[in-house]
From TrEMBL, chain A:
The keyword Oxidoreductase applies. Keywords: Monooxygenase, Oxidoreductase. It comes from the Bacteria. GO terms for molecular function: monooxygenase activity. The keyword Flavoprotein does not apply. It holds the Pfam family MmoB_DmpM. Belongs to the TmoD/XamoD family. It comes from Knoellia koreensis. This is Monooxygenase.
UniProtKB/TrEMBL annotation, chain C:
This is Phenol hydroxylase. The lineage of its organism: Bacteria, Bacillati, Actinomycetota, Actinomycetes, Micrococcales. It comes from Knoellia koreensis. InterPro entries: Phenol_hydroxylase, Phenol_hydroxylase_sf. Pfam families: Phenol_monoox. GO terms for molecular function: phenol 2-monooxygenase activity.
Length: 96, 502, 107
């Protein structure tokens, strides 16, 4: 990377139901500097450099079991590179 | 019973363990299409699918997405939802969508199922298979959602036929067929990377947000439902490009050339989206310019391309032209649709005063100077009892097939024209980008089926305009001016009889 | 540069080649300095047509949908990028107008 400016990564989620709002809260809780913005039907969370979505934190916010593939029901789009999608966490970041 | 496998183990079991090495057929014969493009793959096993999708989880989540969508469609229909749209003119955007976008989804379904057979590696084959099923789902859900409007509005009835015939729909048709006529690697860079990763956010996100804002909940829902698959497709595009760049250094210049080409092809295609965003949504969410800055300049140029720099990839050639054009793009595209809408499957109209002011505010440097005067002139023609239509058939770009409607970057009053003579015949282009694409592969683009040239050849139903429009499958009320159209009259009728809503 | 194709001798004819139009040619006509018309337009004409007939039969009907434009005052003609001064009696062929040439003018 030639300049040192911090690049954001982020996800756009459907602003559809209570569960997605809790998902947003879980992401905010795990990622310092998370910024939440809204458009009709959509909620965007972006963070500097790297975003981690942890199963445990999401489960705490939802009050139920949650599998990381369920994230596919909420996500509309993202920017960055999905570098990890495991049972316990999803990590989105730029590689270089 | 065995301990539950992790996602990683399950994915490995599905892909690697169900694959085999051919013993009595050469690999080159088994996969005949993966060499001619000059791309070198040394290790197919290095392909990573971060989603680690397996058959059971794929169907589980897709079924859930469909269940949610169809519940919304049903309740919208039961609640007479078509009456609570912002305005009947909104529906024009949906007509353009089903005519121009849905057939691309179907073409993508066909081609990904071909690729699901033809990549050497099981990882990309399975990703292509899932995407093929996704794209069929998109085709079906879009048709189902929008068929609800077909009962009430013109213009929705013959979209698959129109995609093959109508002049402005040759823009998306030639785009996807150009990609399908490429090799399997170029197709990935064209569709998965350049279109899905770089550009679909511009198409789906603000547009579906617009649907939500304009009371079209089913469209918003199918849009977001399709887009949730899109994040997988974007990932396929990004994985594909990183994989190919890492495999062999010799791949880098080939990939760069494809990025240059397909960025430009895709960008020209989304001029129709620019027109929709700024002109066809009664309630606006964001302007083309704002959306281009956010989804392309910020996320792609500032984000992604900094990552790709590592591999020796630079931003697409002509990206500076696209940036300069953001001030003009939607205005020039919709101005064209406005004056040829007598031959379109939707209607157009002069933006009202509030809309013009919104455009001035969004485009302070260009709208009042270049475009408001055109609308004022159109309004004057209308005040004198006319309606401005351009009666000449437009000259088309040989590559993107749009009318030659774009202007020079340094002079928005001069139409940009590029031409070349190839084997004794003259060809015209709308831009340096399209001219360069032709120069690289002239043998491909001389075959373009240009709608205007075909009409004049007599292959579109007959020599007169009514014959051509009949061959296009247009019916009374599909085309022309919105004010006074069947859609507008019906809408007013429905709302005048209506009891006051609480 | 040639196409990178699956097989050698990838070669197909143009779908807009002149012979598909009988004795006619296609001519593109563009109006400079007037953005009312979003794009130049394409017409099928016989090359033996005189320039005067081209003006009355092709160009005038096209530009007349601009009520402020005087179809008598068309000037500043160019053919494929070079200025020309066409005589009314010259045919399009005499002027050097070929298949898919672009003529532009101002009003
Ligand atoms: Fe799709
Ligand atoms: Fe897709
Ligand atoms: Zn073009």
């Amino acid at each position: 990377m030639s300049d040192t400016r911090v690049r954001n990564v982020g996800v756009d989620l459907q602003d559809a139901n209570e569960e997605n709002l809790r998902l947003v809260q879980a992401i905010v809780a795990d990622n310092d500097g998370a910024q939440v913005t809204r458009m009709p039907g959509l909620v965007r969370v972006q963070v500097p450099s790297c975003m981690t979505i942890r199963r445990e934190t999401v489960e705490t916010h939802l009050g139920r079991e949650w599998e990381t593939p369920e994230f596919q029901l909420a996500i509309v789009s993202y920017f960055g590179h999905i570098s990890t999608w495991e049972d316990d966490e999803i990590v989105i970041k730029w590689d270089h | 019973m065995a301990r539950k496998l992790s996602m990683k183990q399950r994915y490995a079991a599905l892909t690697r363990d169900l694959d085999w090495t051919p013993s009595y057929v050469d690999e080159e014969k088994l996969f005949p299409y993966t060499r001619f493009e000059g791309i070198k793959v040394n290790d197919w096993a290095a392909w990573e699918d971060p989603f680690r999708l397996t058959v059971d989880s794929y169907y589980k989540y897709q079924a859930e997405k469909d269940k949610r969508l169809y519940a919304v469609i049903d309740s919208f229909a039961q609640g007479q939802g078509h009456l609570s749209l912002s305005d009947a003119s909104y529906i024009n955007a949906m007509k353009l969508f089903i005519q121009g976008v849905t057939p691309i989804e179907y073409a993508a379904n066909r081609h990904f199922s071909f690729l699901a057979r033809h990549y050497n590696g099981p990882g990309p084959r399975f990703a292509a298979l899932c995407q093929s099923v996704d794209e069929l789902r998109h085709t079906q859900t879009e048709a189902h959602t929008l068929s609800a409007y077909n009962k009430y509005y013109g213009g929705f009835h013959s979209w698959p036929k129109q995609f093959d015939r109508v002049w402005y729909l040759s823009v998306p048709k030639s785009f996807i067929e150009d990609a399908m006529a490429s090799g399997p690697f170029e197709y990935l860079i064209a569709v998965s990377f350049s279109f899905e990763y770089l550009l679909t956010n511009l198409l789906f996100v603000p547009f579906m947000s617009g649907a939500s804002f304009n009371g079209d909940v089913p469209t918003m829902t199918f849009g977001f439902s399709a887009q949730s698959d899109e994040s997988r497709h974007m990932t396929l595009g990004l994985e594909a490009i990183k994989f190919l760049l890492e495999q062999d250094e010799a791949n880098v210049p080939i990939i760069q050339k494809w990025i240059d080409k397909w960025f430009w092809r895709g960008y020209r295609l989304v001029s129709l989206i620019a027109a929709m965003l700024d002109y066809m949504l009664p309630k606006k969410v964001m302007s083309w310019k704002e959306s281009f800055e956010l989804y392309f300049e910020e996320q792609m140029l500032e984000g992604l391309f900094k990552d790709l720099e590592f591999y020796g990839i630079r931003p697409p050639a002509d990206v500076a032209v696209a940036i300069a054009e953001k001030e003009h793009y939607s205005h020039q595209a919709y101005w064209t649709l406005y004056q040829y809408s007598y031959a379109a499957g939707f209607t157009t109209t002069i933006p009202d005063a509030e809309h013009l002011d919104w455009l001035s505010a969004q485009y302070p440097d260009t709208f009042d100077k270049y475009y408001r005067p055109l609308w004022e002139k159109a309004a004057k023609i209308e005040a004198d009892g006319g309606r401005f239509f351009n009666t000449g058939l437009p000259q088309l770009c040989q590559v993107c097939q749009l009318p030659m409607l774009f202007t020079e970057v340094d002079d928005p009053e001069v139409v940009a024209v590029r031409d070349t003579v190839f084997e004794g015949e003259r060809y015209h282009f709308c831009s340096d980008g399209c001219a360069r694409i032709f120069a690289d592969e002239p043998e491909k683009y001389v075959q373009a089926w240009l709608p205007v040239h075909q009409i004049l050849q007599g292959s579109c139903g007959g020599p007169t305009l009514p014959e051509v429009l009949a061959w296009y499958g247009f019916q009374d009320g599909d085309s022309g001016e919105y004010v006074g159209s069947a859609d507008q009259i019906d809408w007013q009728q429905w709302h005048s009889d209506e009891p006051v809503r609480s | 540069m040639p196409v990178t194709a699956l097989y050698p001798e990838y070669k197909y004819p143009s779908r807009s080649r002149q012979e598909l139009y009988g004795d006619d040619i296609l001519v593109h006509v563009g109006l400079r300095g007037n953005r009312l018309f979003a794009a130049p337009s394409t017409h099928r004409v016989p090359p033996a047509m005189t320039f005067a007939a081209f003006l009355t039969d092709i160009v005038t009907p096209w530009v007349s949908s601009d009520p402020e434009l005087d179809p008598q005052g068309l000037r500043g003609w160019t053919l494929d990028g070079s200025a020309i001064t066409p005589e009314d009696t010259a045919t399009l062929a005499d002027l050097g107008v070929g298949h898919k040439s672009l003529l532009t003018f101002e009003a």
